[in-house]
Amino acid sequence: MAQQEDVFKKLVAHCKEYGFVFPSSEIYDGLGAVYDYGQNGVELKNNIKKYWWDSMVLLHENVVGIDAAIFMHPTTWKASGHVDAFNDPLIDNKDSKKRYRADVLIEDLLAKYDDKIEKEVEKAAKRFGESFDAALYRQTNPRVQEHQAKRDEIHARFVKALNDSDLAELKQIIVDYEVVCPISGTKNWTDVRQFNLMFSTEMGSTADGAMKIYLRPETAQGIFVNYLNVQKTGRMKIPFGIAQIGKAFRNEIVARQFIFRMREFEQMEMQFFVRPGTEMEWFKQWKETRLKWHKALGLGDHKYRFHDHDKLAHYANAATDIEFEMPFGFKEVEGIHSRTDFDLSSHEKYSGKSIKYFDPELNESYTPYVIETSIGVDRTFLSIMAASYTEEQLENGESRVVLKLPAVLAPIKLAVMPLVKKDGLPEKAREIMNSLKFDFKCQYDEKDSIGKRYRRQDAIGTPFCVTVDHDSLTDNTVTIRYRDTMQQERVPVEKLHEIIAQKVSMKELFKKIVE
């Protein structure tokens, strides 16, 4: 684990050094859990958003997009349950004065038991070699069974406490299992209490009674209050979906792990409206479609898993997460939820307006059920960066840091480099770049030795480097160098477009999703 944390620190440093992510307002010592995307980060982020958006609205003729405002009428958040129920259970350590989420402390405790079990199994696997039966060992080894029994006992208490919103029991679990503060090492805890995560502000002048409004903590409600507008103006038939990408804001007390948990973040959400009674089929279908979207990037199928929720939100009848193996363990990047008719019924009740859908096939009106797919742009960005960051030892004794980003998402697709800054080579390089820049984000680079330039492009994940040399002037060929293999190939200039286009086309990814 320590080694993984080391890798994570390097990744955070790499993000800053190469213009991917900066601490926000850093010249004023930054702002906790708020980050800015740099010149390469914004390109990668935009490519992720395009990949998601097109996979929704191009591949599904019954999915359309909207862009709702961040500010909404305050009753929206009463109806959605956020004013009353959008809370985190927090606990303070009296010695370190640090505040923690009680549920996260208990999840970390459960993870420790998982680690203990895995270590026992790994030790036994080494001892017994190829004849080792891991499943049988887990069932029969007394030490493994002891750890598993303890884990199951904690887990059962934890799930019950969460579902009962029993704050005293959450504290009791922390006390009973002697959870210590990671900073002070003591068990001197306060009681657990709830804390609402919404940022509030005021609209209008205070003199004439300003209205208290909230920065939205999720983008979904903007879709729900507009669903009938979209349905009517777009003549949409159920089932249909509405997609949206936008900023959301949560006053996270325990924001940590770089851009994994931030106070200002971006969501890509699609709400899919279905006939009541069909929601479980659609839930299953969207689970499969969304997992294919992730796996199509080629970061490694084994890095993804589904995790069903222990505690269902007040609006859900089924919920699962797609988790990705980050350097700090498997973590949620996307949630797929069957939200029933909770949101639409609630908005109907609070607004006093009918927002039922008239189904011409059944000749009746009803409140649709909703399947939600909600994915964090920033978390997806982090998962892609973490999976791509590679330190390689080369045969000649050198080492290199390379970002093996999926070519289709890479910020710069192509670097064009004249071998030397004279003899007409820069002019030829510019000519090549000018012919390709309409289709691909290109970078011109003539500073330093060619080796150093390759390393620089490796570090930002550029899949192709094209070197223009003296032969290029006579035979119109260039050397193209491939990032991952470092192999070089001599190709005619007129072939460049075709070679690059094939590798960076989203079409190939989309084909994998709709298979």
From TrEMBL:
All copies of the Aminoacyl-transfer RNA synthetases class-II family profile domain together span 157-418
Instruction: Name the enzyme group at the top EC level.
Output: ligase
Q: Which domain of life is it from?
A: Bacteria
Q: Print the keywords alphabetically.
A: Aminoacyl-tRNA synthetase, ATP-binding, Cytoplasm, Ligase, Nucleotide-binding, Protein biosynthesis
Identify the CDD domains for this entry.
GlyRS-like_core, GlyRS_anticodon
Signal sequence, start to end: none
Record-listed E.C. numbers? 6.1.1.14
The Gene Ontology biological process terms listed for this entry are: diadenosine tetraphosphate biosynthetic process; glycyl-tRNA aminoacylation
Q: Does the keyword Ribosomal protein apply?
A: no
Catalysed reactions, semicolon-separated: tRNA(Gly) + glycine + ATP = glycyl-tRNA(Gly) + AMP + diphosphate
Q: Which GO terms describe its cellular component?
A: cytoplasm; extracellular exosome; microvesicle
Q: Where does substrate bind?
A: R101, E218, F265, E266, Q267, M268, E269, E372, T373, S374, I375, G376
Q: Which residues does the annotation say bind ATP? A: 250-252, 260-265, 332-333, 376-379
Question: Pfam families recorded for this chain?
Answer: HGTP_anticodon, tRNA-synt_2b
InterPro entries in the record: aa-tRNA-synt_IIb, aa-tRNA-synth_II, aa-tRNA-synth_II/BPL/LPL, Anticodon-bd, Anticodon-bd_dom_sf, Gly-tRNA_synthase/POLG2, Gly_tRNA_ligase_bac, GlyRS-like_core
- The question of whether Glycosyltransferase is a record keyword is answered with no
Single Gene Ontology MF annotation: ATP binding
Q: Where in the cell is it found?
A: Cytoplasm
What PANTHER family does the annotation carry? DNA POLYMERASE SUBUNIT GAMMA-2, MITOCHONDRIAL (PTHR10745:SF8), GLYCYL-TRNA SYNTHETASE/DNA POLYMERASE SUBUNIT GAMMA-2 (PTHR10745)
- What does this gene product do? Catalyzes the attachment of glycine to tRNA(Gly).
| UniProt xrefs under HAMAP family | Gly_tRNA_synth_B
The family assignment reads:
Belongs to the class-II aminoacyl-tRNA synthetase family.
Describe its partners and assembly state.
Homodimer.
Kindly provide the name given to this protein in its UniProt entry.
Answer: Glycine--tRNA ligase
